[in-house]
Specification:
The protein has eight helices and 21 strands. The chain has about 375 residues and is an alpha+beta fold. It has two domains: about 230 residues, P-loop containing nucleotide triphosphate hydrolases (Rossmann fold, 3-Layer(aba) Sandwich), CATH 3.40.50; about 120 residues, Nucleic acid-binding proteins (OB fold (Dihydrolipoamide Acetyltransferase, E2P), Beta Barrel). It has a six-stranded mixed sheet with strand order 6-7-8-3-9-10, with helices on both faces. It has a six-stranded antiparallel sheet with strand order 13-12-11-14-20-21. Helix 2 crosses helix 3 and helix 2 packs parallel to helix 4. The longest helix has 18 residues. The termini are far apart.
Length: about 375
């Protein structure tokens, strides 16, 4: 295990900045996930940690030692790539043993390490096959096994599941979580899939355009996003946003005009009349109200019945389409009109710049 520290790290390609002064601390034994949309800089940041990309400015420390100019081979890290990067002409055993053989490790120790990792990953029966005879999930296990046998200070994963089909990704996600619980170690994992981030991480680093938007545990980011970007990125389906203008405000009451609706809340916020506000509410925090007693009258555009749950997409007057998640089976027809109630204890408010004004957990049971 190791402690990683980044101090004001930047990366430039000629005149283009892709990483903007990032600070990050990764503690021993943590599973930290770097998440963000394609092109946000997460893989570049991981490669700088690995020593595969040079740091333009700032410092990378491993266990207190500055390693900016230490070669990748001497950092004691092991990287698992998206493409598996297996040698096609070597057996599974040779792929896992090759790096150890280059260090002149005794053969008995190499065999013990390879067989121990193979048993852990359930690939013992495949040790004498070549990669072309394996499925995508089996190849990924081999790539992970090759990292495990090195007994690295830190595991680095660069979107290792992105080439797998949906069902296999779920299965491999569970295996990675179990593996980390079993062998421990520090892990830094890159993905654009926020579901992977939520299920694997102790802490998530949300990146956007080379900047850190927020760092926290999965539930901290879900419950207390600091801005619109994080609120919209964490959670599946994404949070609904209703843009509006403050009509009235007081210590215990707020009215926001959004589209054709006056949304009244039994709580105040740090804003003034005329301010632009965005009301954020997750799909699972909206309910169908009886007798038109809700906040929004909507028309159903599409309904998805998934057995134990229902998703439907609907349009309120003067506002973008909303996504609503309801437990159970709720048959709905296209064009049907409904009334939706927003749960007041689950409302987030964002200012015109996209910064949080009020978290949902500040409601304290307020109604409105």
């Amino acid at each position: 295990m190791t402690h990683l520290s980044l101090k004001n790290v930047t990366k430039w390609y000629d005149t283009v900045a892709v990483i903007h002064g990032i600070d990050l601390e990764v503690r021993d034994g943590e599973f930290v996930v770097l998440v963000g949309p394609s092109g946000c800089g997460k893989s570049t940041l991981l490669r700088m940690i690995a020593g595969l990309e040079e740091v333009t400015s700032g410092d990378v420390f491993l266990d207190g030692e500055r390693v900016n100019h230490v070669p990748a081979s001497d950092r004691g890290l092991a990287m698992v790539f998206q493409s598996y990067a297996l040698y096609p002409h070597m057996t599974v055993y040779k792929n896992m043993a090759f790096g150890l053989e280059n260090t002149r490790m005794p053969r008995a120790e190499i065999e013990a390490r390879v067989h121990r990792a193979a048993e852990m990953l359930r690939i013992t029966d495949y040790l004498h096959r070549k990669p072309k005879a394996l499925s995508g999930g089996q190849r990924q296990r081999v790539a992970i096994g090759r990292a495990i046998v090195r007994d690295p200070k830190t595991f680095l994963f660069d979107e290792p599941l992105s080439n797998l089909d949906a069902e296999l990704r779920v299965a491999m996600r569970k295996e990675l979580a179990s593996l980390h619980a079993e062998i421990g170690g520090t892990a830094i994992y890159v993905t654009h899939d926020q579901t992977e981030a939520m299920t694997l991480a102790n802490r998530i680093v949300v990146l956007n355009n080379g900047n850190v938007e927020q760092i926290g545990s999965p539930l901290e980011l879900y419950n207390r996003p600091e801005n619109l970007f994080v609120a919209g990125f964490i959670g599946s389906p994404k949070m609904n946003f209703l843009e509006g203008t403050v009509q009235k405000t007081a210590a215990d009451r707020l009215t926001v005009k959004a589209g054709a609706y006056d949304l009244e809340f039994g709580f105040g916020a740090d804003c003034r009349e005329g301010d632009r506000l965005t009301v954020g509410v997750r799909p699972e925090h909206m309910d169908v109200a009886d007798n038109g007693s809700g906040d929004l009258d909507v028309k159903v555009d599409l309904s998805e019945q998934l057995g134990g749950e229902t998703y439907f997409y609907c349009t309120p007057e003067g506002l973008p389409q909303l996504t609503v998640h309801q437990l159970g089976q709720r048959p709905l027809d296209r064009g049907q009109f409904l009334s939706l109630k927003l749960r007041r204890d689950s409302i987030h408010l964002f200012d015109a710049a996209g910064k949080i004004v009020r978290h949902a957990d500040e409601a304290n049971g307020a109604a409105g």
